[in-house]
Amino acid sequence: MGKTILEAKHITKLFPGMKALDDVDFDLQEGEVHILVGENGAGKSTLSKVLLGAYKAEQGEIFLDGQPLKLTGTKDAIDKGIVAVYQENSLVPYLNAAQNIFLNREPKTALGLLDLKKMNEDAKALLKTLNCEYIDVTRAVSSLSVAEQQMVEIAKALSFSPRIIVFDEPTSTLSEREVESLFVQIRKLKSEGLGIIYVSHRMQEFPQIGDRITVLRDGKKIGCVGINECSDAELVKMMVGRDVSQVYVRNKNDFNEEALRVEGLCDQGGRVKGVSFNVRKGEIVGLAGLVGAGRTETAEMIYGIRPIASGKMTVFGKEAMPKTPTSAVKMGIGLISEDRKRQGLALNESIAQNNVAVSLLKIFPNFFVNNGKINQIAEEFKEKLRIMTTSVGKKTRFLSGGNQQKVVLAKWLSQDPEILIFDEPTRGIDVGAKMEIYNLMDQMASQGKAIIMISSELPEIIGMSDRIYIMKEGEITGEVKREDPDFNQEKIGELMMLGGAE
Amino acid sequence: MKNKSFKDIVRSIPPVVYMLVAMIVIFSLIEPLYLSTRNFRNILLQCVPLMIMAFAQTIVILTEGIDMSLNAVVNIVTVLTVWLAIKGVPLPVGMAISVLVAILIGVVKGFFVSKFSLPPFIVSYGMQNIVNSIALLLTGGASIYFASELYRTFTKTVLLVPNNVWVAAVMFLLTYTMLKRTKLGANIRALGGNPESLTLAGVNPGRSLIKAYAFAGFLTGIAGLMMLCRVESGQPIVANGLEFQSVAATVLGGTSLRHGKGNVAGTILGVLLIQVIQNGLNICGVPAIYQSVSTGGIVLAAIIVNALITSRKAKA
Amino acid sequence: MEKFKQSLKESTAFYSLIGLVVLIILSSIIAPNFRTVKNMITIFRQASLLLILSSGLTAVLLTGTMDLSVGATAGLVGCVVAQLIKSSVSVPVAALIGVLIGVVIGLINGTLAGILPGFIATYGTNWVIAGLGIAIMRGQVIYDLPQSFTWFGTGYVGPIPVLVIFALIVVAILYVLLTKTTLGRRIYQYGSNPVAAEYAAVPTRRIVLSAFVICSICAAFAGMLMTARLNAADAAMGDTYGLQTVAAAVIGGTSQKGGEGGVLGTIAGALILTIVVNVMNLTGIPAQAQGLVIGAVIIIMVLIDTVTRKRQENKID
Fold first, then answer.
1. DSSP labels, C105-137
2. Partners of chain A (3+ Cβ pairs below 8 A)
3. Domain that includes residue A357, residue range
4. What is the domain range of residue B164?
């Protein structure tokens, strides 16, 4: 490892009513991937934004190559070689890749017009260094896939010839294969001597690319450890601040009555090709697979939001074909969707109103609503799920990811469906909230609910499921039960990647 | 293989082209007189002010805005130029001043929209009230006149095409080049598609937005002058209604009200389609009292067809 | 009490209500005859049509779409009902037909808004509806309607105009409908996040249709009352109301993005616009200059609303 490029000392950043960063030290060396980890609200994003010049810290100093650094803004940081690849897409959808990469730094012709030709050539060259020459730089980026957009995003960062790149949750929208090629790029950048700050939640990624890990909690630095100096459990303990010997709690239930059975389910777009499985009362059934394997699509068909092209569905022994979510809910099916902010919550509505979003007609069948009763219901769920908020009248926009997810759960618990699908229920939420959600799922199963869990995190799906179906490219390639010898990461991972034995 | 590429070409043609061709065919079948160079020259002549206004509207819509005051700006340009001429200011100077005023109005709108993030619809509607009111005050509510030969120079023909159509063509080239080949053009699409990206790239989004409105203001000013040359007087309500037509034309031309998607070339076709419909119904002798409902009906149908085809394409 | 204060402050109507109060105080200073009871009643009478129209429109705006056709709908319904009554159809039957036209227009608008942006769809229907008005009136104006009809527009119950009573009833119904019913809650829910509403098993198509139907029924009502008040029907009589209605609702704090605002604010917005015109008339400002003031008031009110709301959000954050 080389010399220290960036050093931040005693950084304190205040937000109204809270200390987002409290006397935090951080350093980055040449040719290093330094992972920043912590629960939501721990201050990882704040710290990276301070380093990127997006926020100004109230106290503390930053040194670049030993020289004090005073950033005036993101542009200034970029000029000094500190750039970011953001979690949320920062591209302009109807500009092409080349124009996006060179936004505000466009080469010009003698006439003062943009030199499109040079721009395209330069963009191509950049993408080539990322082994992405297949991306057409003249196409609007809105027509590229998410992964391709991410690559354009990285190319854009590289075009500044940076010395330090901050990756903020770069893999949250990528499939496993795409993650792998991203890691190849990161390793390459690292070997070229760049310093990389990698903000992430996904612990399974750390050993693959990280060198050191800095853990933040409640705005404070808890520690900085080498990648091999610390076990997962220790890391979780540092993040959460308490011992988490038992992350996945499952009680043994009896499964008798079949709640849901699907046979030969196909969608119209060919993303799901004849999926068959069942789930019984009291059971948690996992759907494992890579992103794009057709799991979410399957869930959406069961929930009536995506049209079913062919196949059969049986709910509690009766044939059923939900055409809309409304009819699915009437059959006793619920879906906790993947994208919390887009699909799960009305962010400008209060916690209380979100809490009754599904169950409104069940609670008030006579057209008129009583807002007092809505608040009362929300108060109950706030207690029960330990939603951290001053008031249930607060807009959900102002909650942390974990608390938002609890509101989504409350929304479904108040409707009380017999069959509930959890699609990536713990994505982007902190470890503490994750465990509470696991507990809740276990409780629901014990109460005799049938639960389907979709997750891309193998430890989680193995920890929680009684049975796991593995999906690959729209088909089910395998089924393993908890009592099977194959119920482990290696075998399931293999089925996810390679499909079943022929 | 060849077949497929032909199919691709067909698919890539925007629906407005088919609709335009279809309308022309239908009208010429109903009324043979329709298919005359004279009539097409008329269509072109008539649509010039709307055309240039629609270019302005397209720019504003690409920023995810909308401008309900374009009519008022055209009105004030006709009124102000004539009013100044009556007060003794030479016509060309008055024209220049009017265009400057149009740019200034654009800057003010852009300022309010960017600085306070007010909804463009409401800002421009408020502005419409204000500017129209000033136009009415300047004229006392009626039209005002100032005789000059200068107006006619724009309706004269050079190289088979009337001069004001040449002006529209120049305005198109300016707008097209601005959108495609300048920083401002890229920034405009970013304003509609992802304003955050501008801040990240070190561009001040507010300043870009004001520039966009100023450019649109300039175009509207020119549209006002073309209107003036057509009506040869200062008319405080002459362009009322065109603010909406410019939106319809922009949308028909394939520009989306959101995300900075679209292009100004399509807008030309959108304007032509609206003009062809209006002119065709007229030529075919549809009685005056039925013209509004039938024009509106056909334009609405065109907008619906356009949306349906576009959404199907997006799905496929 | 504390809680009430808090909820009032967080309500989107808060600043438009303050604006209204400030405007009333200013008006009383500027125009001494503003404060008379008689003038107050006049203001309410002048505001009544705008109140009905903009309260109805609030339902559509809350779903995050737009209805530009309310003025034309009012005009068309007013004309049709006038013609029906002239050809000796009884008033209740004519009114029923008028409401039905409103329902049909609402259904068409709502359906189109499922395919197109509401702004564009209803601009198109506005054009067609206004054109229909011209076509059925054949350029004529209808005068002299029977008193049994015009009473709704010109009659009084005690000192209070029937028109005002009607407006208040419609506004009250809409207030209850939007805040105290499952339909109203779902309109807010949909407007706040249409995708999440769909995932929450809200029948989204039906909610949007309902909002447009509510809006168009209000427009139909306003159109009939307009005819009754003018004792005449003219194809163009509703035209100016189209955008004014939008302005009233938006001034009142109902966001065009949907999910935020409500009837209370819209009442304030409609009253603000009416009072401004009233005061200008009292002080003799010529009609041609009034647009100047109205335009400025619209921009300033929306400015205050936007800026204060932004500050509030930052505070909570």
1. HHHHHHHHTTTS-HHHHHHHHHHHHHHHHHHHH
2. B, C
3. 333-416
4. 46-311
CATH number, domain of A349, equals 3.40.50.300
Q: Mutate which of C62, C180, C182 to disrupt the A interface (most A C-beta within 10 Å)? A: C182
Residue C164 banded pLDDT, cuts 50, 70, 90: very high
CATH of the domain at C215: 1.10.3470
pLDDT value at residue A144: 86
Neighbours of A132 (CB within 10 A): 21
How many separate domains does chain C show? 1
Among the candidates A213, A240, A267, a domain finishes at: A240
Its pTM stands at 0.88
Residues 6+ apart with CB under 8 A from A424: A338, A454, A455, A456
Contact C91, C85 (CB under 8 A): yes
Arithmetic mean of pLDDT, C133-146: 91
* Residues of chain A with confidence (pLDDT) below 50: 501-502
- 3-state SS of B161-181? EEHHHHHHHHHHHHHHHHHHH
Report residue C92 CA to chain centroid gap: 23
Closest CA to B53 of B209, B191, B167, B179: B167
Q: What ipTM was estimated for this complex? A: 0.87
Determine the distance in angstroms separating the CA of A424 from the nearest CA of chain B, rounded to an integer.
Answer: 26
Token pair belonging to C154:
């010109």
Residue B306 has which token pair? Answer: 């356009």
Q: Say whether C188 and A349 touch across the interface (CB within 8 A).
A: yes
Within 10 angstroms of residue C32's Cβ, the number of other Cβ atoms is 9
Is C3 part of a structural domain of the chain?
no
Residue type at A309 in one-letter notation = A
Q: CA–CA separation, A143 vs A481, rounded Å?
A: 41
pLDDT digits (tens, 9 = 90+) for B3-18: 556 777 777 778 899 8
- Nearest-Cα residue of chain A relative to residue C7: A393
